[in-house]
Amino acid sequence: MAGTVPADIVMHNDMVIAFRDLNPQAPVHVLIVPRDHIENAATVEPGDSHVVASMLITAREVAIAEGILDSGYRLVFNVGSDAGNIVPHLHLHVIGGRPMGWPPG
Q: Can you give the pLDDT of all 105 residues of the chain as single tens digits?
């Protein structure tokens, strides 16, 4: 968000920025980050609903732009260190472009 690390920006608006993950887990792996600081999904408050809605709408726009809307994609919020959340800023993973089995992995 600070612009200190180069990023392949996919799209942005006044509420969020979407860029390709540096360590992709699938052919499409985009992170959607709100411009306002929210630590993680566990700290989202009712007043943040417009931010979360913008993140979900942007995820759909990413899926359309990346050609994975119809084939399917996964949306992931990681919360806490056990989930692998190493960046203390809310972000949504949009992952797709290949079949993903269940359980995730």
A: 455 557 899 999 999 999 999 999 999 999 999 999 999 999 999 999 999 999 999 999 999 999 999 999 999 999 988 888 888 899 999 999 999 877 655
Domains in the chain (CATH in brackets) are: 9-96 (3.30.428.10)
Q: Is 91 a catalytic residue?
A: yes
Sheet holding 9-12, edge to edge: 9-12, 16-20, 28-34, 92-96, 73-76
Q: List the catalytic residue out of 29, 37, 50, 91.
A: 91
Alpha helices in 1-105 (DSSP H): 49-66
